[in-house]
Amino acid sequence: MKFSIIDGRALTLKMIMFVLLSITLIISDTKFGYLVTVRTYLLGIVYPLQYLVDMPIRTGQWLSKSAISRNQLLSENDRLHKENLQLQFELQKFEHVKYENKRLRDLLSSSEEVRERVQVAEVLAVDLDQSKRNILINKGKNSGVFINQPVIDAKGVIGQVTQVGLFSSVVMLITDPAHELPVQVVRTGLRTIAKGMGTINRLSLLYLSNTGLNTGIKVGDLIVTSGIGQKFPKGYPVGTVIEVTPDIGKPYAQVHSLPRAALERNREVLLVWEIPPTPTIINN
Amino acid sequence: MNLALRHHGTWVIVLSFIFGFMLNIMPLPTWASPWRPNWVAMVLIYWCIAIPQRIGVATGWSVGIINDVLNNTLLGQHALSLCIVSYISVRLHLRIRLFPKFQQAISIFGLVIINQLLNAWIYSIFTDFQIHWSVIFPAITSMILWPWLFVILRDMRRTHRVF
């Protein structure tokens, strides 16, 4: 009886149809980007699955947090208190510098000041494609996340949003081999591009000529976002230079840097919204 | 009568796929990550050879689309490979059913390799992804784990009378 259930020819036709459909999908996804909204809703549909996978880990963290001893809490509280004092102290100076900066800008009558708003998002413990460096966060279209939005943590730049779902979004880390970030050396103002290398904690700085190494960059330099490219706000720390190797055989030197942000270790990240500067009327 | 019988135990199939998806995205240590068995493909192949009148190319394709979204790959990439894998397994379901478990595992190895290579091939066409030996590691682990998955799913199918 069961020999005739499957009609071979119909099956082949169906298969060819679906293969053609997939090829159309792949091409429209890569070449034209028609499927951004489709993916948004599909990501919304699969969010329960990702949430379920993340839940045991979340519960484990909650349990270990609630089972923490009093002593530990006290010492942590102490540490945070000290840290807060230190930060407050630095903020005092910062306020002063901010006013001074504003006054100088007024004198030059330039209003470049851009302000930012941040929101905390949590990283879901879910494995995405292993060949790339991506993370999934629990804020999506419902929180106003948009594609190419910068993502940072307390120490530095993490990456940018590449896919937005209804309740979640995919963030490409700066260490992804496809990610390039315009940066600048703080000490000298030398501009370069930080490209991911696909390894966990390494960035490669591109287009630094061998001759410029003497003055422009050295081990230990801090690099920050340069704001070129309009995607990342200016001045967020990216990493420190750890290796400068002049390469006589090639036009450019090999310069590596260590990202500042805890790229694959942190649970919480910050999403950045730029608030467009309000046109100020210069009086006097 | 036949129509009423057709949809029996759908929830078992759906649940098995949900578990497959969850195992596919569960975080693993970095060294184990390339060796992760392709659970979704294994579950799909099982249902394709067990109830080919219900699960076939269309299911394979939809499962592939979900897999693409979960893995953040090109939309249609897993859909294409899983659709072809389900086609082959439906075509060969009578033969694979008769194989002893050891031989079955080898055919699973072949099917998962087809899936992995198709994936890697499509991916390398559209991005700068380099095909590496590690794309066939999942086929090896899938082959090793197949007998257990087969037994579990067969018992599920028999106790809940899925057909």
CATH class categorisation of the domain at 70-173 and 269-274 in chain A: Mainly Beta
| Count of discrete structural domains of chain B | 1
- In percent terms, what proportion of residues of chain B is strand? under 5%
Describe the main β-sheet of chain A briefly: 6 strands, antiparallel, barrel
Biggest beta sheet summary of chain B: none
What's the helix-strand series of chain B? HHHHHHHH
CATH architecture type of the domain at 70-173 and 269-274 in chain A: Beta Barrel
Summed over residues and divided by their number, the pLDDT of chain B gives a mean of 89
Helix content of chain A: 25-40%
Using only C-alpha atoms, the radius of gyration of chain A works out to 24 Å
> How many individual β-strands of chain A?
12
Helical coverage of chain B, percent range: over 70%
Largest interface, C-beta within 8 A: A-B, 43 and 44 residues
Summarize the structure.
Chain A is built from four helices and twelve strands; from the N terminus they run αααββββββββαββββ.
SSE inventory with pairings:
The complex is a heterodimer of chains A (284) and B (163).
Chain A: H1 8-32, H2 36-66, H3 70-108, E1 115-124, E2 134-137, E3 150-152, E4 157-164, E5 169-173, E6 180-185, E7 191-196, E8 203-206, H4 213-216, E9 222-225, E10 237-245, E11 254-259, E12 268-275
Antiparallel strand pairs in A: 1-2, 1-12, 2-5, 3-4, 3-12, 4-5, 6-7, 6-9, 7-8, 8-11, 9-10, 10-11
Chain B: H1 2-6, H2 10-25, H3 39-50, H4 57-71, H5 77-91, H6 93-98, H7 101-126, H8 137-159
Helix pairs in contact in B: 2-3, 3-5, 3-8, 4-5, 5-7, 7-8
Can you give a write-up of this model?
The complex is a heterodimer of chains A (284) and B (163). Chain A has helices spanning 8-32, 36-66, 70-108, 213-216; strands spanning 115-124, 134-137, 150-152, 157-164, 169-173, 180-185, 191-196, 203-206, 222-225, 237-245, 254-259, 268-275. In chain A, strands 1-2-5-4-3-12 form a 6-stranded antiparallel β-barrel. The longest helix of chain A is centred in the first third of the chain and has 39 residues, at 70-108. Chain A is built from 4 helices and 12 strands. The radius of gyration of chain A is 24 Å and the shape is globular. By secondary structure, chain A is an alpha+beta fold. Among the domains of chain A are: 70-173 and 269-274, Beta Barrel (Thrombin, subunit H); 180-259, Rod shape-determining protein MreC, domain 2 (Thrombin, subunit H), CATH 2.40.10.350. By secondary structure, chain B is mainly alpha-helical. Chain B has one domain (2-25, 34-159). Chain B is built from 8 helices and no strands. Chain B has helices spanning 2-6, 10-25, 39-50, 57-71, 77-91, 93-98, 101-126, 137-159. Chain B is globular, with a radius of gyration of 15 Å. The mean pLDDT of chain B is 89.
